[in-house]
Amino acid sequence: MEAARNRSDGGVNLPEGPAKYIAAGDKEAPSWLQKLELIQSILGQGHRITLARLGAASVYLRWISTGALFCAEDGNHHRPNRPAEIARDIFVSLETVAGELYKHGAEVGEAERQMMRQIHPWLPSFSSEFACSEPLTRIRNIAHRSDISEDLKKQIKHTIQNKLHRNAGPEDLVATEAFIKRITVDAHPGECPQAFVDEFMLFYDELKRFFNCSGAIERLDAMYDTFEDETRAQVQELKEAMWALDDGSAGHDGLTGGEGQAILRALRASIDVRGIFTGGLSTGMRNDAPDEAVSQRQAWRLAEIAIEELAFVVLARALQSAGAGVEGEGDEKTSHFANALNSGDASMWGCAAAAAAAGMRHMALSMWRPMECNAVARELEAWVQHGSPIATQEDALRCRASLQRARRLVEAHTQALIDGFGDAPVGLGKSFGIQEHVGGTFVDAVIRANVSFQLSRLVSPMLRAATSAAGSDTAGYDAIVLGGPVVGILQECDRLEPGAVKENWHKGRVAPVVALVWGADGDEEVSAAGKQVRGVVLARDLPHLSHLAIRARQEQVPLATTEDEETRNYARYLVGQWVFFHVTPEGVILAPATDAQIAAYEADAARIPKAEPPTAAPAAPAPEPAPETKAEADSVDDETPTPETKVAETKVTAQGTVQFSDKLECRPLGDATKETGGAKASVCGELTHFAERPEAGFKAPPGVFVPFGVMETCIREAGKGDELVKLIAALDAAAAPDDPDPSSIEDACKAVRDLIERVPFPADLAAQIAAAMPTNSWVVVRSSANVEDLAGMSAAGLYESVLGVSTSSAAELGSAVQEVWASLYSRRAVMARRAAGLKQADAHMAVLVQEMAPATVSFVLHTAAVSGADNTRGADGFAPSRTLEAEIAVGLGETLASGARGTPWRLEIDQTSGDVRTTAFASLSTAFMMHEHAMHLGMNTVAVDYSRQELSTDKEKRDTLGRRLAAVGAALEAEYGAPQDIEGCVVGDDVYIVQSRPQPL
């Protein structure tokens, strides 16, 4: 293309960064060699590997290698060994940090590893045949053959030989291919002897090897003699499987026939062979690796990438043979493949699951979340072992959970590539004058050439079929918090955080908002995003009993989630419009609001006095200090030093009485009261007493608590008490305006937190806590504020808990306690208290320390169902039902509380009949685990394989656990006289309860 010959404009319109650097450097780099040197200058050894650098370099390298960017001679003379040297340097730089094990240098993430894979295929080879002082000399010998004409000799010398040895570039491969046509198709009879043609084709093969243009089978053939016997047998199996597909001997009778078996054979063989290479590449490359080892590593890396490309082709054949329809033409939902899946055809499900599992394993071999990809592959294979995986509703729910995990992995991989390339393709395309569509469609083309793309085409119809069979196809939504109807303007935001939702004024009032939210960490406060938020659509899964769901329920804000692509796209289409939003047990409605619905809202709003548009509010005065400390507080700003403020022994707040300790102490958990240690510590102490009853049915972990006032005493004894009072007063002032400045609040919060964490933690107090716990134990350090676990204000997850703290380390223990203290002043906590109308000076923190148990599974239990159709709304909210709801996850409970993507096992237990109904199977990606038999090793995060989890494979186990939890929940509800939100875990055969708080209804 002519535009491709245009030189760079220097990136004058690009922001500072790698793309601009490349665009500017290209002005002085006309040749392919110099362009490689430009890439070397940002990715070579000694340079930091970043996602932005990899993205920009990948785009540039691909374009100069494919001719999209024109390469010219630079007037210098360098043989092809010089580009080989540069390629080696870049390769070593990447491979040194890329290994899964024993890597060297800086840490790189999963996205960086995927972007490195976009670099390797476009680097030239630096094997010994090209790294020698005079490589590619065969063409010189050909040009001097005596059996060809002088004209042919001149053509070879002037169009290929001289250029190649002077200024090699991918354009030489194009020239060689054109010359092949000249000496074969266009040659006169007898003009070109066969021996000459054969020799030239050998040169062509060499050139392809230099530019790394060989396919998977060619690469395997080239290395065949270096393999061991077992590897040779596996390579031969792959070659024979591919021959069967290519020569037609496999037939064309569809995925469930002989053709399908040949396809699956080829996929299995490709995994086996590719696994040999990736296994050898799993360790980071040594800095002092010899040239031969580095060259072999490049050959292995390119071989495994080529096999991945081969798998892409085979997966496309699988989709074609299944009758999946033509992607993009809208017939996927009515295709033969979709219809067979919807009908529960066991043969089609078996073959589709096998193909999808193979795709997941190839993604794992590409180092994309390998543990989870392999786990999902095993799940898909397990669910089809005994026939159709959607034969019953529970079977369909289980299959759906695994397919949701598969889709999340595919979507995350796609997003990693999008983020990795960023704006580089479009920006560089404009800088180089390349046709607009080349840069605009670059990322899409890369994604559509990836195994994950074919996998998405397999998984999507499977997921639709499983969802339909599970009876979960409620317009693509999952109803989390029932409520509405709501009429408001749909706004989108990344997360529910201060300032995320803007005010829209409508007829003199702030219009209500339905928020379309793209991400969540599970600890958000809905009201913190704005009081105008009346409904939330979360574009990802969320546990029904997560902290975010609890808070939305408490604030009576309807909440629905969706991971359905069409549903999310439709919601995004509605952004900026007035919408009608209603979350009911029967389903979720999100639709454009009618004129009548908008008029009804306006009529209701007219009964409320109009608000005035916000103006800058003056800073609020610092709150009056408590009477006991007023004199000292008045003297804080005096130049003369004054005695430190003394903490009052008792303080009455809107949340009740707080009794302060003026000692550096901890007390037995069983002695905790609401006044001395907060509602959480008090209840946890009560639980230890309840657990001692023979009929309790559960255990409770013992521990100690650090009472209210100890934090202030610690700070006061360090001479910083008055500073703390002053900083908290400043925080109250920053949060006082109707429309506070988020940055001012964050600065004020940080100042308080920094003070708390800066003061040395008393060694005596750390020793007291450690002495009260078993020797060398691991504990959880939890918050117990006077403004959490209250009726009407659960503040679930608002404050920090620190898990896996070793009591053998005084520093670690003290740091954990200080972290919990400081969490009282996180911006999120401050904004939540502000929304509730609480003064920051009235919030106080005690700390709860309990021994950790190696939980097999953890759970959250609501003793009054919140999402069932049998709930009815009374004047004061939902009337309690006799159905209990439990959500269960593998490992420690942080996974449930965090709002991690995916669903837990969800059980509904009928207290009257004892029937247990499974409404969702677990699909959470990872679990937070303690080493049960080696607790000194602490905790680790593991990918969960649900095909090996009893709660997914054994209905009786699920039902038994459900009934046990229901019995415990009913007992605690009776004990406290109100519905309870209960957290606990299972260790072996024992149920542990770690928390019970009033359940928001």
TrEMBL record:
Residues 678-999 form the Pyruvate phosphate dikinase AMP/ATP-binding domain. GO terms for molecular function: ATP binding; kinase activity; metal ion binding. Its cofactor is Mg(2+). Pfam families: GWD1_pHisD (PF22973), PPDK_N (PF01326). Signal peptide: none annotated. It comes from the Eukaryota. Residues 612-654 are annotated as: Disordered. Keywords: ATP-binding, Carbohydrate metabolism, Kinase, Magnesium, Metal-binding, Nucleotide-binding, Transferase. Residues 612-626 have a biased composition (Pro residues). Residues 484-595 form the Alpha-glucan water dikinase phosphohistidine-like domain. Belongs to the PEP-utilizing enzyme family. Homodimer. This is Alpha phosphoglucan water dikinase.
